[in-house]
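Hey team,

Sharing the Peptide/nickel transport system permease protein run so nobody has to redo it. Sequence (355 residues) first:
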Amino acid sequence: MTPPRSPGPGPANRPAPQRPWHVRLGAALPLRYVLRRLAGTAGLLAVLSAAVFALLRVAPGDPARTLLGTRSATPQALAAVRADHHLDDPVAEQYGRWLADALHGRLGTSIRTGQDVTAVLGDRLALSAQLVLLGFAVAVALGLPLGVLAGLRARRPADRAVQSLAVVTLSTPVFAGGLVLIYVFSLMLGWLPAYGPGSGGGGDRLLHLVLPAATLGLSVTAVLVKLTRAAVVRELAREHVTFALARGIPTRRVLIRYVLRGTVVPVSTGIGLVLAYLLAGTVMVEQVFALPGLGQLLVGSVTFKDVPVVQAEALLIAALVCLANLTTDLVHPLADPRLRTAAATAPADRDKGQA
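Structure output:
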């Protein structure tokens, strides 16, 4: 009796061909889902831009006098300002003209300095972006590992210690935390500079941003710790994780392939919220450490009633926050296959129900 032959390299036994990256990306992010998210973000930006444009209208006094600043408010000067800014046109036309200029990067002229607002923001944007990115790195580097540790050691001394530290950092005002870091690391130890952006190269700038970034990052680390801990505890209680551990699968493999992978969606949502908060939280940090960034510019512009700069900066921050939220929404289907199915089938199921 001849032994059975092994199956040959027929079509059924050949490995499936690898699909191109754009095909796999399209399957993970359906076009309809992406378009709906883009449309929602565009609608939100339109509403926020209308609110930002209304800042000039809700400001006390005549808009022409506000835009005139400290210059002499003669009838001729007021008439020139009204003509330059089309203040006598209907409000809808003014908003459309202002929005079109903003989309083309024409944000007006600063009342305080007389410079182009785009140039004023450009000079400050680099420093604030560096501060936000470093603070974000501090928050992620501390919040995620501590949250995982607290989740794995739930209701144990390590968990209680991590949560106590999180409560302390969350309840400490940003300016108080900054002053404590300045006192310890600048005045007592003399390791780091206390204020200013530095005047040297990249290394000097990085040295000056260590304390501000630590202050900014610690203010939101507790949020990531809480979200990560809750996600880890929830995933450890799921049936497939319990079953995998009961089968004798190594604990490290279960943690990486099942527990940590299941926490990606809630943790990424928290990361998006933290990034949005950091964009708005630079105001106090830049004031404490005397950093000439967007936050300090905003405080000075509000004090001086420099409406064009306030409008431009508010619109920029709103756009960055909306972009962070949009990125988070698009990352979710890539991280969780269940959301891919929901993103692809939800519109079809809704249309079927309406029919």
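The chain has 15 helices and no strands.

Ping me if you want the raw files.
A.
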